[in-house]
Design a protein that fits this description.
The chain is α/β, with parallel strands linked by helices. The chain has helices at residues 7-15, 17-29, 68-83, 98-107, 117-124, 158-168, 184-196, 209-222, 243-254, 264-268, 278-294, 315-320; strands spanning 42-43, 57-62, 88-92, 112-116, 133-138, 150-156, 174-179, 200-205, 228-231, 257-260, 272-276, 302-306, 309-314, 334-336. The chain is elongated and about 60 Å long.
Length: 339
C-alpha cells in the first residue's frame, strides 16, 4: 500500500524549504557541510528559446540536496517566467572557482546577477567584474554589509501581515512585538504600516533571550483579550525552546491573537503566518534585476521585505479565539492541524 502525506504536510515540507535552504547554503559556504569532489562548473541544463545574452541576467544559487534544491528551482522558474526567457543559472558547489564563474558570465554577456541564498550572495559580490547584484532567498537587513545593490529579504512585509490580521480578527487593534536591533529597519516599516491601518504597534527592543523573556512577561501582564502579538523572524528574541513555548501558552491562556513571520509557528499554535511564494518571489527578483540594469546604482544596499507570500492558518487556534474562518479557508495555502 502506498502512503501519501496529507496535502498540508507536503506543502509544509516544501514551504519551509526556502528558509532551510538559505541556512544550509550559509553552512555550505562556511565549510560546515561536506562538499562533493571537484567537478566542472554546473550550468543548469536548459535549451534557450532565444539567446540568453538578450536578457543579460544570470542566477547563482547553492547546489543542495533535495528537497531544498527544488526551492531554488521554483525561484528560477519564476525569474524566467517574468523575463520570458531562460537565464544562465549556475548551481554553486563548494569547490567552484570564482574565475570559472566569471568566465561563464562574460561568455553569456551577463549584465545583472541574481544571487540566491547567503552563499550565492557571497560569490556574486566577490566577482572581479563587479556586476549589479540582486539578492534573494536570504534573511537580510541593511546593516549586513552584503555588498549587493538590492536584497529582497525572506521576512514578510509587516503591511501584509497586519492586513491579514485585520481580516481575521477585526477587533484586534493593538499589536505587541519584541525585536532585536537587527530588525530595527523592519520595525520602522511596521510602524508606518500600523499607522496607515489605524493600528497601535507596541514595540519593545531586546538584546538577548533574558531581556526578551522579560518583555514577553510584561506583555502578558498588560495585554487584553484579542490584543495581538507578532513574532518576527528574529532568532535572538524568538527562541524556539524557551521563548516560543512561553508565548504560545500565554497567548492561548489569555485569548491573545498570536501571528508570525515563520510558517513553523502555525503548526505549533500561532493563528497564522505568511511565508514565501517561491515562484512569485522569482518574478519579483527578475523585475528588480531589470530595474537595476536600467537605472544608476545606489551607494548603499537597498533591503526590502517580501510581499510575494502565501498564508497558513491554524483552525484550532481560530476556533479557540472564537473566529469564524470556514468561509475564508480557500485563501490559505496551508491549514493546520493536518488532517
Amino acid at each position: 500500500m502506498t502512503h501519501r502525506c496529507p496535502r498540508s504536510l507536503r506543502g509544509l515540507l516544501l514551504a519551509v524549504g526556502v528558509a532551510c535552504a538559505a541556512g544550509l547554503a550559509s553552512a555550505h559556504a562556511a565549510g560546515d557541510l561536506r562538499t562533493e569532489a571537484a567537478e566542472p562548473l554546473r550550468i543548469a541544463d536548459r535549451t534557450p528559446a532565444a539567446p540568453t545574452a538578450a536578457v543579460g541576467v544570470a542566477v547563482l544559487y547553492p547546489k543542495l540536496e533535495e528537497p531544498f534544491g527544488t526551492v531554488f528551482q521554483q525561484i528560477v522558474t519564476g525569474i524566467e517566467a517574468a523575463l520570458h526567457n531562460p537565464v544562465v543559472s549556475i548551481a554553486l558547489a563548494g569547490t567552484d572557482a570564482v574565475e570559472s564563474i566569471e568566465q561563464v558570465l562574460r561568455e553569456h554577456g551577463t549584465r545583472v546577477v541574481i544571487a540566491l541564498g547567503r552563499h550565492g550572495l557571497e560569490v556574486a559580490t566577490s566577482l572581479a567584474d563587479r556586476l549589479p547584484v540582486v539578492g534573494g532567498a536570504v534573511l537580510a537587513s541593511p546593516t549586513d554589509g552584503s555588498g549587493a545593490d538590492t536584497v529582497v529579504s525572506l521576512t514578510p512585509d509587516p503591511d501584509l501581515l497586519f492586513q491579514r490580521l485585520r481580516v481575521l480578527s477585526p477587533g484586534s487593534r493593538r499589536i505587541f512585538v519584541v525585536h532585536s536591533s537587527s530588525n530595527d529597519w523592519l520595525i520602522e516599516i511596521a510602524r508606518r504600516a500600523a499607522r496607515a491601518q489605524k493600528l497601535e504597534l507596541v514595540a519593545t527592543a531586546a538584546s538577548d533571550r533574558q531581556s526578551a523573556v522579560k518583555a514577553y512577561r510584561d506583555i502578558m501582564k498588560d495585554a487584553r483579550p484579542m490584543d495581538a502579538i507578532w513574532l518576527p523572524q528574529d532568532a535572538l528574541v524568538v527562541d524556539r525552546d524557551v521563548v516560543l513555548p512561553f508565548v504560545l501558552q500565554g497567548s492561548w491562556d489569555r485569548s491573545l491573537v498570536l501571528f508570525s513571520s515563520t510558517l513553523g509557528h502555525v503548526q505549533r499554535g500561532a493563528l497564522f503566518a505568511l511565508y514565501p511564494d517561491n515562484h512569485r518571489m522569482g518574478e519579483h527578483l527578475a523585475s528588480s534585476a531589470l530595474a537595476l540594469d536600467k537605472h544608476s546604482r545606489q551607494e548603499q544596499t537597498q533591503v526590502e521585505p517580501l510581499r510575494e507570500l502565501l498564508a497558513a492558518i491554524n483552525v484550532r487556534t481560530a476556533s479557540h479565539l472564537g473566529l469564524d474562518v470556514d468561509d475564508s479557508l480557500a485563501d490559505y495555502a496551508l491549514t493546520f492541524p493536518v488532517r
